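Progress narrative, Year 2. Work on Na+-dependent transporter from Kaustia mangrovi advanced from sequence curation to structure prediction during this period.
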Amino acid sequence: MDGITAELLADPLHMMSLMALAFGLSLVANALTLALFWRFGRRHAATFGFSNGARNIAIVIGALGGQVPHETWLFFVSTQFPIYFLPMLLKPVYRRLVPDPAPVTYETRRSASRQSAR
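Result:
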């Protein structure tokens, strides 16, 4: 990954377009997976959507033995940004989509155990 700063300074438009592509693909993967698993409930769909949208493709580079073209390395570097920034950017969206569950208290736990005993 050496030389990324030089690449960014030499051709900032190209690097920014790769980053925009990486963010876009990550958001699309997130949204498609969320929609696909929606029928299993909001919490599960959000978990699967986020997991798919924020996956790390380093294993692909490892499987290829590092023998990839320069452009692939640049895109690989660009995919790291959504992995780290999307959790912060999507936090408000997920908070609205999946509200926090009711807190578990002694009374709710006791009530649940009574219902399961019936």
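Residues 4-117 form one domain. Helices lie at 4-10, 12-36, 42-53, 58-63, 70-97, 106-117.
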